[in-house]
Write a structure and sequence with these properties.
The complex is a heterodimer of chains A (190) and B (193). Chain A is mainly alpha-helical and 190 residues long. Chain A contains 5 helices and 1 strand; from the N terminus they run H-E-H-H-H-H. With 193 residues, chain B is mainly alpha-helical. In chain B, 50% of the residues lie in helices and 3% in strands. The chains are: A mainly alpha (190), B mainly alpha (193). The interface between A and B is medium-sized, with 20 and 24 residues. Strand 1 (50-51) of chain A pairs parallel with strand 3 of chain B, so a sheet runs across the interface.
Chain lengths: 190, 193
């Protein structure tokens, strides 16, 4: 199953699997008359005309706004909410990619082959949580700004501690992979 | 021996005889075939054909037809026209040196039409909202300033503005005379001072 949804409006219907190919061919029986009708009668009478996606220009963020400048705060807040939405979609896309990789390779091989995608997804999730997490849905840019301030203060006061723990996660995963290899090679011994 | 017998006495005889074919109408069949038979008079050939009622089916189809002709068919034709001859818009990158108009951000032609002719321009509404935010912010600042000044005057009591009420001296003299005449209460008091 290799359907990619990242591109807008195009689905790749090709696979090495004969069964899948035959199913796809079955679907094309319904597809044929519809495409024929569309190409002959519909496409000729239509005129193509474009539509665009809105391009929001960057606005000064909250740390560049003066105290009491409510207009600046409003625009910075709108930008903050847009960025939060975009980051949320980014995490969802990375999750989708990792999931598709696992579906393609299976849960056992996927643990080795999809490691990079998994790591990207984890990193994105941790960064999202660092920036936007636990603020609630009615968050403003000031909440995130204050959260960042408190986090930097805490990091300044506790320089040794690692709150994110990505390196520790990597070590744990390496150990589990080695254990799996040992199990497959010699189940009785390990 | 009674020679003249009423014809009515012949009914059971005729009923059970073979002559009943074409004369009688069978009411019951099968095991109950020896029960009474109705008598036919051959007055007319047209009989009521008993069948289930048609009121509800006709009413249902009638209302269906009504709603289809009033709303279903016009909307279907409109949507068919929209999809055959107009079609949805195609996503393009914004070309340089061109700023798309505010309705060109929609895909559906009906939405484009409504955005263009019915609803207000989003950029204009946005700027208007910013203006209102600015005005309210200014008012807020003025109010806060006034409050602060008032409290400071109240605390320090050093300025002749909020808590200072200028009174002419004549009123004070009149008040003194009144008190001398009538007392501080304004009437003679026997029990209070």
């Amino acid at each position: 199953m290799s359907s990619t949804h990242d591109e807008h409006g195009s689905v790749d219907l090709s696979s090495e699997n004969k069964f899948m190919n035959r199913l796809i061919g079955l679907g094309k029986i319904f597809d044929g008359p519809a495409t024929f009708f569309r190409e002959k009668f519909v496409e000729k009478n239509r005129k193509e005309y474009p539509y665009y996606h809105r391009n929001y220009p960057r606005v000064p963020t909250i740390d560049e706004c003066a105290f009491g400048d409510h207009v600046c705060f409003f625009e910075a807040n709108e930008q903050f909410l847009r960025d939060r939405k975009v980051d949320k979609f980014i995490t969802q896309i990375l999750a989708r990619r990792a999931h598709e990789c696992y579906i393609k390779h299976g849960p056992y091989d996927g643990f080795e082959k999809c490691r990079q995608l998994d790591e990207d997804h984890e990193k994105a999730l941790t960064n999202y949580y660092i920036k936007y997490g636990d603020l609630g849905s009615n968050a403003t840019c000031i909440d995130a700004y204050m959260k960042q301030k408190h986090r930097l203060i805490w990091q300044r006061r506790n320089p040794e501690k690692d709150i994110v723990g990505l390196e520790k996660q990597k070590e744990i995963r390496k150990e589990v992979a080695e254990y799996q290899k040992r199990i497959t090679e010699d189940p009785i011994k390990a | 021996m009674i020679v003249h017998s009423k014809l009515i006495n012949l009914v059971p005889v005729i009923a059970k005889s073979n002559l009943r074919h074409g004369l009688k109408e069978k009411v019951s069949k099968g095991l109950n075939s020896n029960i009474n038979y109705n008598q036919l008079r051959h007055s007319h050939a047209r009989t009521m054909f008993i069948r289930p009622g048609k009121f509800y089916t006709k009413k249902y189809f009638d209302s269906l037809h009504f709603h289809f002709c009033l709303a279903g068919l016009p909307f279907f034709l409109f949507i068919a026209y929209q999809n055959f001859f107009v079609g949805p818009a195609i996503l393009n990158d914004i070309p340089e040196d061109y700023e798309p108009r505010y309705w060109e951000y929609h895909k559906n032609p009906i939405k484009r039409f409504m955005s263009r002719y019915v609803f207000e321009i989003p950029e204009r509404a946005y700027e208007r909202n910013l203006h209102f935010i600015y005005v309210e912010g200014c008012k807020q600042k003025m109010r806060n300033l006034e409050k602060k000044v008032k409290t400071m005057m109240k605390e320090n009591q050093d300025y002749k503005a909020w808590y200072y009420v200028p009174v002419p001296k004549e009123t004070l003299e009149m008040k003194k005379e009144y008190h001398q005449k009538y007392g501080s209460l304004g009437y003679e008091s026997k029990f209070t001072k």
